[in-house]
Amino acid sequence: MQSYDLVIRSAVNIDTGKICDVGIRDGKIAEISEKIDSRGKEEIRAEGKILSPSFANMHTHIPMALMRGIGADLPLMDWLQKVIWPIEKEFVSPEFVRAGAELALLEMIRSGTTLFLDMYFFEEEVGEAVKTAGIRGGLGFGILDFPTRVAREPMEYIKRAKEFAKSMKEEEMIFPVICPHAVYTCSPGTLTMAKELADDLDLYLHIHLSETREEVERVKEEYGNTPVLHLEKLGFLSPKVICAHMVWLSDEEIQIVKEKGVKSVHCPESNLKLASGIAPVPKYISKGMHVCLGTDGPASNDNLDMLEEVATTAKIHKGNSLDARAITAETAFRLATEKGFEAVGIKGGRILEGYVADLILINTDSPHLQPLYDPLSQVVYSAKSSDIDTVICNGKVIMEKGQIKSLDEERILAQSREWSEKIRSKL
Ligand SMILES: [Zn+2]
Description:
Blueprint: E1 4-13, E2 19-25, E3 28-33, E4 40-45, E5 49-53, E6 55-60, H1 76-91, H2 94-110, E7 113-120, H3 123-133, E8 136-143, H4 154-168, E9 174-180, H5 188-201, E10 204-209, H6 213-223, H7 227-233, E11 241-245, H8 251-260, E12 263-266, H9 268-273, H10 281-286, E13 290-293, H11 306-321, H12 329-336, H13 338-343, E14 359-363, H14 375-381, E15 388-393, E16 396-400, E17 403-404, H15 409-424
Helix pairs in contact: 2-3, 2-15, 4-5, 11-12, 12-14
């Protein structure tokens, strides 16, 4: 008889709507059937709960959680230049990054995210927090042209990014990523150095691209090309490039992105809040582009809730195109799960044998989830992340019945309040 590390019993499978048992071994889904006879070392009874893959948040800056709620109702460039960069100049330190990352990790676990792609500074602090939290992180040290508290010039950023990447290379749950910030904050020389570093270490590149119309105009003026063409000319594009936003692509750019196998991360709520626009995602998908979802940083969203992002994705494109099938509940859901894992080469984001056991259980014992006819569409359109009851990552239970096992929630919330007092005094 097969033995399992963990068996989940009598859950409602989000894909089929049927009751199933799932056996997990060595971090992977080993069996899905109506009834598993053998016992697991650990067992979870899941009657009345929906079993779903966990979420992949493929673009964020989690330490910015400490700046959540500052600078509301500004467009991107004003928000960055007048609000965010001055605060970062004053406060960003290893301690700030650690405290912000811990707060964000609590929020991500509570809302069912087990994989995220992060770009910030002092990323080694994010790495330490992620190790304790027990989820997966693709982490990168942000690279810029201008001086900040962390580096003075591009070579120094590249050096920091390289040291960080080397220090994380052997981690099981963390993979380093190379993160030049954007084409309007990195010169062609900086972008080329970042690309060479990523190639040398065989790592993904993660960059903001074509986020606002203003960015497209600026890049055209400065380099005579739109952002995607600019990167293409530099030899930057490949299947290992993950671009956040891509709101303003031309048909020619869509074709290049598709041909080069570049991945696009749709961040609808950040794009709405910063008035950046609505990426034509139904068109991108129909043209064969790889699209996944992200929240962007918690200061521009203003949360890390992927379930909200899924619901927004499903609704915004219907309203925008007057087509109720423009993005279905299932498509939006797959962008936030399977497509995210796939973007970084992890076989996950599905309830299928052989896939990584990154799973959540959603409690349906609440008025807004009854009656339950269609689990997938009701998770997208009715569920709230507070309905998420259990979170499993790599076969390990990191939250059970609403209790996070890996992090001290009380300490982290108290620490966040202390930071907010310091930051408030400088606003
Ligand atoms: Zn961003």
